[in-house]
Fold this sequence. Notes:
It is a single chain. The protein is α/β, with parallel strands linked by helices. It has a single domain (8-228), classed as Spore Coat Polysaccharide Biosynthesis Protein SpsA, Chain A (Alpha-Beta Complex). The chain is 42% helix and 17% strand. It has a seven-stranded mixed sheet with strand order 3-2-1-4-6-5-7, sandwiched between helices. The chain starts with 7 loop residues before the first strand and ends with a helix. The relative contact order is 0.17.
Amino acid sequence: xxxxxxxxxxxxxxxxxDSAKQRLAETLGxxxxxxxxxxxxxxxxxxxxxxxxxxxxxxVSGDRQVRDVVAGRDVVLIEDSAEKGQSHAARAxxxxxxxxxxxxxxxxxxxxxLLQPAELDGIVAASAGxxxxxxxxxxxxxxxxxxxxxxxxxxxxxxxxxxxxxxEQAERRGLSYSVERPHSLTLDIDTGDDLAAxxxxxxxxxxxxxxxRGVLRQIERTRSGSVAA
Length: 229
């Protein structure tokens, strides 16, 4: 059981919106991709604000638009001027979480707009029994989230086949780990198939991911208008 005296941070490395989601280029134009990335990030931040276990939200990004999204929110923003990728940004976030006295850090993707606060609370709570908690993507090869000690030895290694790398690293370092699959964290949006799966999930839910839902509706209206013209 997660102890109430344990301080937890959520860390979001965020790529620039205007260069995000390149793998969706065949499906969406640059403006639509940027709008979608911003909307998903906003929905993830909104979900994090309603968790029961996260004390601190840390965002690592070099995008000025990210500042606009978090303006007025209780968020620690780290300027990512180097922009050397997700793992590098994650390490910067971990260093800040450790400096702030956090005992746990949940590395959370900014493109899982269906994130439910209770499910994030569940994986943070799972870290009471495991030194590393790993959440795979829906394909079972990548990693969508990690919960670790921010001052510990475990190093995030995101990217293709990262699930294997993360489990092997935990075993090599002698760290106990668990692999958790909370539904709302398994669907990240990188491809047209992911976008289709998101549309289906949104049809089945009500009130989830309102900003993402709104952007997708606007995209659909724009497409319909183009076809009609």
